[in-house]
Amino acid sequence: MASQRLHDYLHSHQVAYDTLAHPYAMTAHAAAVSADIDDHEMAKTVMVKLDGRLAMAVVPADEWLRLTRLREASGAQYVTLASEAEFKERFPECEVGAMPPFGNLYGLEVYAADSLAGEGRIAFNAGTHRELMRIAWSDFEHLVHPRVAVLTRH
Predict the structure, then answer these.
(1) pLDDT confidence of residue 35
(2) How far apart are CA 118 and CA 109, in angstroms?
(3) Tens digits of per-residue pLDDT, 75-125?
(4) Would the pTM of this model clear 0.85, i.e. be above it?
(5) Please, which residues bridge with residue 49 across strands?
(6) What is the count of structural domains for the chain?
(7) 3-state SS string over the chain?
């Protein structure tokens, strides 16, 4: 079942969304394939540390996050990937690695790849490795206020 926090948040803001159940998938690419959606529409959440503080980078499943570009976009001096141990407690209702890209619900800054902004909608893990949600990009941008920047390579 999707994160109750996310579900309540979307309902309270009257945001339309689809849910897509799929077989267990550990990666964003595998989830996209099993849910029969385009890899580029599937957003993966990458947990990072910017000068020691946790943040989210949200990128399409078919692209790779470039830490140097995130460093430039964030103005941080040090950017590293966060380990599961560093972030799993922050998302108590989510399976590790299936966090939705709504950092604002968890007190985290969110950086989104500009290549996602060109999509009409995005899909993402909804707190489990068996369910996705899909919403309009404009709703995501309105609710989360991500810092949109060039963050990826193909």
Answers:
(1) 86
(2) 21
(3) 999 999 999 999 999 998 899 889 999 999 999 999 999 999 876 899 999
(4) yes
(5) 54, 80
(6) 1
(7) CCCHHHHHHHHHCCCCCEEEECCCCCCHHHHHHHHCCCCCCEEEEEEEEECCEEEEEEEECCCEECHHHHHHHHCCCCEEECCHHHHHHHCCCCCCCCCCCCHHHHCCEEEEEHHHHCCCEEEEECCCCCEEEEEEHHHHHHHHCCEEECCEEC
Closest by CA to 55, choosing from 104, 10, 92, is: 104
CATH number of the structural domain spanning residue 70: 3.90.960.10
Residue positions counted in the chain: 154
Show the domain range for 113: 4-153
Token reading at 133? 């949600």
Neighbour-count burial for 88-109, b at 16+ CB within 10 Å, e otherwise: beebeebbebbbbbbbebbebb
Instruction: Give bridge partners of residue 134 from the DSSP assignment.
Output: 18, 123
Checking DSSP bridges between strand 79-81 and strand 43-50, what pairing results, if any? Answer: antiparallel
